[in-house]
Write a structure and sequence with these properties.
365 residues, mainly alpha, 65% helix, single chain, globular, disordered C terminus
Length: 365
């Protein structure tokens, strides 16, 4: 009978730490046939892209409502909470109103997730290699949570920076309504208009609060998700682990849901500031921003600190948490679905290196 250690090693999705801790010469270790590096990279990118598209489309209505709550003119409130906001979108824009900007979001999130998951794996390898260059650490591995946190932060900044202009485009298309004075006609038109009217820097408005907030948030998501999976396999709570010590899809969804709650809540104020900064300098802005003839216009911001100060001063501390409820309802299933979709697609494509140990009788565990 296989030992408990071997059972855990078999059940866990093969992490880079486990992969490097088992030398190729160790008896009983069987690895999948070598695969061309480019093909492996392409499969990983495809898995990340599919995970992003599936997860974001499933929660698109909540994502749009969150952004509308974040950036609407505080002197002309149209969207006032989760239920009222969804009803208002339905009554004024119909079903398509729930998915406004989702095409742009998928066009952004698919390459974003592809880059993010791929960079996470490569950064894990790099961090592990650097750790083992230190004297005395030649055969050691860093703590798994720290490895995941560092790799996740690297993945976040690379993916976010590479696709940030698309995030700005998504934000503006999302808050645009049928009665807005100027209509962006799609991704290309929005990009060219912003570039022409606001310059190259206009495409990166709000980038700093994104780095400060999104990067550690993504790192925390990866760290929590991996640690929760390890804990679940080890302690088998609530029957979430099957007889082969493998986590079921519902169990992985629960791990992803918990991971998706903590980070977004902690760093949510920075997300509000990012969205508000993205709307600054928008000529003939959406009526959601201008307030459709309200006597007081939306504030202008000169930077992240100025945006924080004016938001809290003019609207109170609660303003930096506007849209938190739909955001949590969106992020929790979105992160969970993204992680599980990514792992499932990678399994289908055969990206993971499968490791098997042989028991004392010479049979695979």
């Amino acid at each position: 009978m296989a030992s408990s250690q071997n059972v855990v090693a078999k059940s866990e999705m093969v992490s880079l730490v486990v992969e490097h801790k088992l030398p190729a010469s160790e008896e009983g270790v069987i690895k999948a046939p070598p695969e061309h590096a480019l093909l492996r990279i392409c499969k990983s990118l495809v898995a990340g892209g599919i995970a992003g598209g599936v997860s974001r489309t499933s929660v698109a209505p909540l994502d749009r409502l969150k952004i509308l709550l974040q950036v609407q003119n505080p002197h002309c409130i149209k969207y006032n909470g989760l239920v009222q906001g969804l009803k208002y979108i339905w009554s004024t824009e119909g079903l398509q109103g729930f998915y406004k900007g989702n095409g742009t979001n998928c066009a952004r999130i698919i390459p974003n997730n592809a880059i993010k998951f791929f960079t996470y794996e490569q950064a894990s390898r790099g961090i592990l290699w650097l750790y083992r260059q230190q004297p005395g650490n030649e055969d050691a591995s860093p703590p798994n949570p720290l490895l995941r946190l560092g790799a996740g932060a690297c993945a976040g900044i690379v993916a976010m920076s590479a696709t940030y202009p698309m995030d700005l485009v998504k934000g503006r298309l999302t808050v645009q309504t049928d009665v807005s004075p100027f209509q962006y006609r799609g991704i290309a038109h929005t990009l060219s208009t912003v570039l022409q009217e606001e310059g190259l820097r206009g495409l990166y408005k709000g980038w700093l609060p994104s780095v400060v907030g999104v990067v550690p948030c993504i790192g925390l998501n990866f760290a929590l998700y991996g640690s929760l999976k390890e804990w679940s396999v080890k302690y088998k709570p609530l029957g979430l682990v099957n007889n082969n010590s493998e986590l079921s899809i519902p169990a992985r969804l629960m791990c992803g849901a918990v991971a998706g709650t903590v980070g977004p809540t902690i760093f949510y104020p920075l997300d509000v500031i990012r969205r508000r900064m993205q709307m600054v300098g928008w000529n003939n802005a959406s009526s959601v921003i201008t307030g459709e003839g309200c006597s007081k216009a939306s504030p202008m911001y000169t930077g992240m600190i100025d945006a924080f100060r004016k938001t809290v001063r003019n609207e109170g501390l609660v303003a930096i948490y506007k849209g938190l409820v739909p955001n949590l309802l969106k992020v929790v299933p979105s992160v969970a679905i993204a992680f599980v979709s990514y792992e499932t697609v990678k399994d289908i494509l055969g990206v993971e290196i499968k490791i098997k140990r042989k028991n004392k009788e010479g049979k695979d565990d």
